[in-house]
Amino acid sequence: MEEYAIIGKRIPRIDGRMKATGEAKYAADYEMPGMLWCKIARSPHPHARILNIDTSRALSLPGVKGVLAGKDFGGWKWGWMPKTRDESPLAVDKVRYLGEAVAAVAAVDEDAAEEAAGLIDVEYEILPGVFDPEEAMKEGAPQVHDYARNNLSWDFHMDFGDVEKAFKESDLVREDRFETGRVITGYLEPPAAVAMWDSSGITIWPAKQSPYFVYRHLAACFDLPLNKVRVIQPFIGGGFGGTKNDSLAGDFCSVMFSKMTGKPVKFVYSMEEVLRTCRRRHNMIVYNKMGMKRDGTITAMQSRVIADGGAYTAIGPLTMYLTGCISTLPYKLPNFKHDIYRIFTNNPISAAMRGHGSTHTRFAAEIQMEMMAEELGIDPIEVRLKNAIIAPHETINKVTVHSCGLVDGIKTLSEHPLWKSRRDERKEEREKHTSRGVGFSSSAYLGGARQRGHQSCGAVVRLCEDGTVDYLTGATDCGQGSDTVLVQIVAEELGIRIEDIDIKRVDTAYTPCDAGSYGSRVTVLAGEAARRAAMDVRRQLADVASSIWKVRPEDIIFRGGQVYVNNSPDQAISFRKLTQIACYEDSGAVIIGRGYSGYGVEELDFDKGIGNPGTSYSFTSQLTEVDVDMETGFVKCSKIVLAHDCGRPLNPINVEAQSQGAVIQGMGQSMYEKFVMDRGNTLNSNLADYKMPLSTDVPDIEYIDIIAEDPNGPYGAKEASEGAIVSAPPSIVNAIHDATGIWFKELPVTPEKIVMALKNKNKK
Predict the structure, then answer these.
(1) Range(s) of the chain covered by CATH 3.30.365.10
(2) Most exposed residue of 17, 44, 84, 329, measured as fewest CB within 10 angstroms of its CB?
(3) Which of 302-306, 308-312, 446-450, 725-729 has the lowest mean pLDDT?
(4) Which CATH code of 3.40.1190.20, 3.30.365.10, 3.30.70.141, 3.90.1640.30 fits the domain covering 456-597?
(5) 578-585: long-range contacts at Cβ-Cβ below 8 A with a sequence spacing of 24 or more?
(6) Looking at residue 599, what is its pLDDT?
């Protein structure tokens, strides 16, 4: 591999000191003179018609400055695409989930706003609700939206090859029902914003990982040109998709109140509001059918998936697409059929979350493949190696893979002491109080995600006269460390220090428009834009240097703060000095570099699932060791080993930390996390009852880089970390099976489920 000065080095995060000292300001930290507080009044019913809203008691409370209802937004709605715009800032005629925003209050302080919100009287006509997606699909079920027959929100279908013929030619065909859990992102910072409306338009400081989403939503809602909407991004306390990627009632209401009063308006959701009302990962039922030859060759797979979409569409169509389009990875799959149905229910809204779409169907396929290997008496590692793709590869639905470290990852883990310690003789161990198990999985995930609409990234590199640099990007660091990586890229191209570059946080008045931080696209696409912008500055400086030394511009080298002629180190000058010459000599120059990245014109058939959903694909293999208490069902995850192909890791510290976080997030959803629902009501809407992993639950995690540089990423980089949240559930469930001899097909695998399964097994 080519040796770089900055790229690939273990450089601490550039925002670390600010976050550690408390200097970093998050949305909830912002205060302004004369600021009002906004609070939301929410529905106590999951499905009801709104007959009347009486705001008189709220308005009479001292300190209250305004009240809003749904009609105040003039019928405006938002959503992912024009035909799915079904959600209004505040409910107008009906509420469709418990906790939906019905009205809002602005008051001089938070307590007054909270009290006033409780004084709003809403008269409802309670309607029958529907909470199970399979029940909601039936004729005669209560309708969440009148236009959606059988509550169908969105459906998506793929059909490649001939699955029926392949099943007939298979030696083993298996059909199973799997179900993933109702979970949420788990960020520590709840949604918040401060909004101001004045003569220049809207200015808002929101907690958004994709600020240009709310930028467009606010312009459309308030009928303003985009240059009259300014989104200034604070530091973000975690995102992971869903709520931080979309707009919320609080965003629209705070802006409307500011327009009404001429004062800045702030809202901060409570963690209970987050857990009861904010966007969740789709709960999915996956009916999976797989065919396999006696030697372990996969012949075909057919999936029928039913997704609980909740009350509104949100970004659900993209989720449905992703469940199928990369199911043809990480293994060769010559015949594939996929039908998915997103169903409206009277539950909170389902949307995107880390590992978007892929986590559900990969869990089902990976577990089923392992079950079939056991039934055929084949080593599960051998089955994976037999079916693993090798680059270059084109799937049956024309997903093109230019680099792939899957085989290397599988082989690396197969030689790991943890896998070698796994024994076949589990019977005796299962008689003991504690049984140990080791599980394996492999997964693939896309980087540089594509969807409809604006997808390009831009960057501006402004050279200051003293040789320092201002770097402007519209890409958001929502905790993943992308700011550090982007600065590394600029520093590498210009041959200067990290300390010489200052990255400007997103401000839509100045920074280039960016599609957003989702689908592992920042390093790949914003990184390429940063690289090109820095190269533009370097080219301009090289022209100046080449005229000094009378050589070709391409012979000029930038490294270690020095600029010199290739193979002539005596012809050298400092980067700072060259900058001064370029900016001051003759009439001087203003040196600004511009760069952008996009997708070109490559075909992507969204409706049929044909083409690349991303620019490249990462591959992860995972080993997990668990100890299962055979009396209580309690599971302790003791060790995880990840072999991850993210191309070239541009910052190994970031890559490892993000992968560790992702695998623990996946562990939580495998073993602990699940909303307990009662007819649309979330019964565990606090962090004490919604069980997420604690620091004491974190196992020993070993990370192994599998280098497979990709031609479509800067310096060969691909996505890092989302693959680990996809690989975690099947690896953990396979380990629990190894310990107990029982297959679990529904997440999370809780102690109660294990105890009941063991009791049922012992009865047989």
Answers:
(1) 280-450+605-763, 456-597
(2) 17
(3) 446-450
(4) 3.30.365.10
(5) 578/467, 578/541, 578/544, 578/545, 579/463, 579/464, 579/465, 579/466, 579/467, 579/541, 580/465, 580/466, 580/467, 581/544, 581/548, 582/463, 582/540, 582/541, 582/544, 583/463, 583/465, 584/465
(6) 64
